[in-house]
Amino acid sequence: AKMAAAAASDLLTGWCLFGLALLAILIFCWVYVRKYQSRRESEVISTITAIFALAVALITSALLPVDIFLVSYMKNQNGTFKVWADANVSRQIEDTVLYGYYTLYSIILFCVFLWIPFVYFYYEEKEEDDGNTCSQVKTALKYTLGFITICAVLLLIGAFVPLDIPNKKNSTEWEKVKLLFEEFGSSHGLTALSFSISSLTVIGMLAAITYTAYGMSALPLNLIKGTTSASYERLENTEDIEEVEQHLLRIKSKCRDGRPLSSRDRRTLQQLEERLRTLRRRERHLESIEKSWWTKFCEAIRPLKVVWGVFFIIVALLFTVSLFLSNLDKALHSAGFDSGFIILGTNLTNPLNMLLPVLQRVFPLDYILITTIVMYFIFTSMAGIRNMGIWFFWIRLYKIRRGKTRPQALLFLCMILLLIVLHTSYMIYSLAPQYVMYGSQKYLVQVRFTVATYSQLGNIFRSLLFVILSPFNLDQCIVTRTYLFLHKFWFFSAAYYFGNWAFIAVFLIGLIVSCCKGKKSVIEGEVDDDDSDLSDDELSVYYH
């Protein structure tokens, strides 16, 4: 009865913590979306969609530490299973986590292939045809049908292309087709879902290489270097305004006697007038920032930003070195491309693999570290997207700017984050493969020995205890559900392996570029030549 009461108490505590975490995630998503969306172009449906998609991304990323914790919690420190963790209970826990993955991944498929494309095309049509709602819905559904077709093709490929087909030379074509349907029925379509998710993960890998790798270098260095002073920028801006005004007067003076301006002077005059409008908008923004309480608060916590920047760059370097050593280990000791560069165990120890077993001795330091790395991966992805904007190859589609981001750009941002989150699990696995597979589990080893003399007993006992406490035995440890998702298809694992090398290269390039760049402007990206004067009112909300 006491054990049942304790288990019920732990379950209630767990649900309470889960509820608080979910509430915190929803509040963060609402604040983040409201901070960046345009006040003039904000729509209810796009706002709800962006908040929901961002929340799904964060919840999915948080499932990895929970998965690792649950498989570790079922065993004692001496390698034995806990009393309550019998075969049925452990199987129920594993199935619960697995169904959690399937549910969240199915929601991601729904968002990526149906809901987000529909909302995006609906507002694209709304800008062109601001009258007939029915026509807008029909057009949006027509374009969304293409995404649904791609999803259906991926599901069919994953369902009817088995990984292992028995090689029977005498089997007929009907028997082969029957085998495909039998495999589909035995897996209940879960292999199809796994194939579709793995396909999206490859796209997420490309997004991580583009945005996350740059964000990991840009975010810490921007915190360390800070921004230029608003008063100093305002002084420089005033000088630029005076210079442009004088240049305008010189050009206009040429036509005072009635002579027409040359085509070259007219083009220069038009460019200078546009430049003057931009400078005056900058002047208004700088004046608002200089007087705002938020600027004063940021200046007061400047030392704290430097500390956070140093901490983030240390985490980024730890991340990159561990990823390099893990990939090097696969290159040297794996079975090669045909196996997806998969290895069981580690031959080259990386810093993260060394640090996690040490932190396991003090609960819950190892879970705090792995959660920090996952959240760092997500937030640096946000920073990379915010700094670079939304690109399609060399074409810049949208900018992510505070208080001035269009609904379509926010939808793109959330879709990219959903794809990056799918790749997060493999990135963490690459950093600490054994920990992601088994957590802090330990196993028992039966060793037969004969003690010759009593004096040898102490040394034998110490060596035996070392063997007992050594982790990661395939037969006596429970594998996380994350690992089963990661290595269901070897060719995707091979793609992830090469993607890790590209990630390291982009991070190093971004680090060099960020070091060479000077301080960012205090209104970096907030004022552009193509902005209207009405957009100034949107940003003023944050400074007054």
TrEMBL record:
Q: Which sequence ranges form a coiled-coil region, renumbered to this chain?
A: 262-289
Instruction: Assign the protein's first listed, main location to one coarse class.
Output: membrane
Give any single GO term for biological process: protein localization to lysosome
UniProt entry tagged with the keyword Acyltransferase: no
Q: Which family does it belong to?
A: Belongs to the LIMR family. LMBRD1 subfamily.
Q: Which GO terms describe its cellular component?
A: lysosomal membrane
**Topological relation to the membrane, as annotated:** Multi-pass membrane protein
Q: Which PANTHER family match?
A: LYSOSOMAL COBALAMIN TRANSPORT ESCORT PROTEIN LMBD1, LYSOSOMAL COBALAMIN TRANSPORTER-RELATED
Q: What Pfam families does UniProt report for this protein, alphabetically?
A: LMBR1
Q: Entry's InterPro entries?
A: LMBD1_LysCbl_Transport, LMBR1-like_membr_prot
Please provide, alphabetically and separated by semicolons, the GO molecular function terms listed in this UniProt record. Answer: cobalamin binding
For this UniProt record, the keywords arranged alphabetically read as follows: Cobalamin, Cobalt, Coiled coil, Lysosome, Membrane, Transmembrane, Transmembrane helix, Transport
TM segment ranges = 12-33, 45-66, 99-123, 143-163, 190-214, 306-325, 367-397, 409-429, 449-469, 489-513
Q: Where found, per UniProt?
A: Lysosome membrane
This protein is called what?
Answer: Lysosomal cobalamin transport escort protein LMBD1
